[in-house]
Amino acid sequence: MTEVAQRLDARGMNCPLPILKTRQAINRIASGEVLEITATDPGSLKDMAAFCSQTGHHLLSSDTAGQGYVFLIEKA
Known about the structure:
This protein is an alpha+beta fold. It has helices at residues 17-27, 44-55, and strands spanning 6-10, 34-39, 58-65, 68-74. The protein has a four-stranded mixed β-sheet with strand order 1-2-4-3, with helices on one face.
């Protein structure tokens, strides 16, 4: 089980807010720590993968949870 350093609730936010809030939250954790993001915007599936690809962070998982999505990102 992955230890989560910080959680971000981005439910109800539409693009680009989930990514902007993710960027802010990831800046507050140390390299190697994990951020958990919960979102409802369907675009966040594509956006989180693109964010990690562009920034070098590691998308550990991307799962559907209820009517939303849960992402685990490890800071590079």
